Structure formats: structure tokens, C-alpha cells
Amino acid sequence: MSSQLNPAKNFFILLLGAGLIGLAPLFVRWSELSPSWILFYRMFLALPFLALINIYFNKQQAFKLRNGKSLLFAMIAAFAFTTDMSAWHWSLQYTSIANSTIIVNTAPIYVVILGIFLFKESVSRRFLVSFVSTYVGVFGLAYFSSTNTDGALFGDALALMAALMYATYLLIISRLGRESSINIIFYTTLFTCLFSLIPALIESREFLPASKMEIINLFAMAILCQVGGQFFITFSMPKITASFGSVGLLMQPIVATIF
């Protein structure tokens, strides 16, 4: 897939990906499985689709990385993503979707801060004003649409951990711009699938979907949120600055709050 798109087009691709991931809390709430098993199935069911997409677009270069270190970075990113998703899924069991959404989506703040200090990215005053204004609007939307703003402290703490890990994941993949985005999302999904088995087996030995609706729910989450959402984010993030991308990621809490 060509990456020669201008920043505006990449930004809109990021918006699309963030919007699809914003649907994930619904699928988590609808599932009867434990949080880590939900994460496992999201990754496991997405792998065949990602493999086919990889082979179709990359052909002979499918699954091949230009730099050997990229596989290590993909593994580290997957570990951060596993921690992020496990903590976030569990937070939804203890606090409201709105509360969890507000806290988890502070991740772009950490992306901007780390992008400035680690990668020397510059941001204008106009950008900072727009960034803060957008965040105030998103937080207000989530807060006033919540029917339970007194979420449990434990759930909120899990959501904060998820935010920190998600910021780590985004920063790592944003540095892998020389690699094929399809290869990167395949390997991060594969490693996340493997890593998620550990907490899943600890949580529960009941791992089989109990109904057709559960199977449909898991497939929908895998295709929309992982194959679609994470791929679009992985494709677009390396092609725009971390600070600019952090604004696009605000589509996640907007969609999650609306639905």
C-alpha cells in the first residue's frame, strides 16, 4: 500500500482508525468472556485477515522487515499494547465507559509531551491552544453524557495505566515509518495474541464463546477494531508528527461516548 500521501490525507486515515477503535468498548461490554480472553480473540481472529492483506499488498515482501531491530520494537510495542488493552478491558468492569474513556484517552497528552522531549518535535502556540480546547470539549462530552460519573477508583487507576501503555505503543510504532505498516500491525497483533494468553489463563479457564452472538461480537471487534482501526493508525502515525496525530486520536473518545 502506498504511503505517499500528504499529511492531511494521513490525518483523515488516522481519524478513521481512531473512530473504529472507539467502537471497542461496546464489543467488550457485550461479551460474556473475561477481559483478557476478549483481547486474545480480538488478536487471534484478526491474524488470518491481516496475513491475507499482507500477502496481497506486499507479495514477496510480506512478513519481511527491513531492519532486524524492528521485530524487537514490534515485540516491545505489543507488550505495551497487551498491558494497555488488558488494563483497559478490566477498567470497563469497574467504572463507566465514559470515565474509562476520559482517562484512557489522556494517552495523546503523553504522546505530545514525550514527542517534544524525546524527539524534539516542535509545536506552535496555536496548536497548543487548539489541542487544549479540543480536549476540554471531549472531556465535557464524555462527562456530561455519563450516567455514572462516580466510577470506582480501582477502575480509574487501571484506565490510567492503560493510557500510559497506549502512549508507549503509539510512540514506538510512530518510529517504525520505514517498515511496511501491514507488516508492523501483523507482528504487533501476533505478539499481543501470544502475550495476552498469560493473563487470560490466569483469569479464567472458560474461554469458548457460548453463543452465536458472542462469536459474531468477537469477529466484529477483530475486523473493525484490529484489522481496520489499528491498521489505519499504524499506517498513518509514522507519516505525521506525534503531536498532530494525538489530535486525530481524540476521535476515539468522541465515538465511544456517542455510542
Automatic annotation (TrEMBL):
What SUPFAM superfamilies does the database record attribute to this sequence? Answer: Multidrug resistance efflux transporter EmrE
Keywords recorded for this protein, A-Z: Membrane, Transmembrane, Transmembrane helix
Presence of the UniProt keyword Transmembrane in the record: yes
Transcription listed as a keyword? no
Hey, what's the signal peptide range on this chain?
none
Q: Could you tell me the superkingdom of the organism this chain comes from?
A: Bacteria
Question: Which residues are listed as membrane-spanning?
Answer: 12-31, 37-58, 70-91, 97-119, 126-145, 151-172, 184-202, 214-235
Q: Which GO terms describe its cellular component?
A: membrane
Q: Where does the EamA domain lie?
A: 13-141, 154-259
Q: Which Pfam families match?
A: EamA
PANTHER family xrefs: ACYL-MALONYL CONDENSING ENZYME-RELATED
Q: What is this protein called?
A: Transporter
Organism the protein comes from: SAR86 cluster bacterium BACL1 MAG-120920-bin57
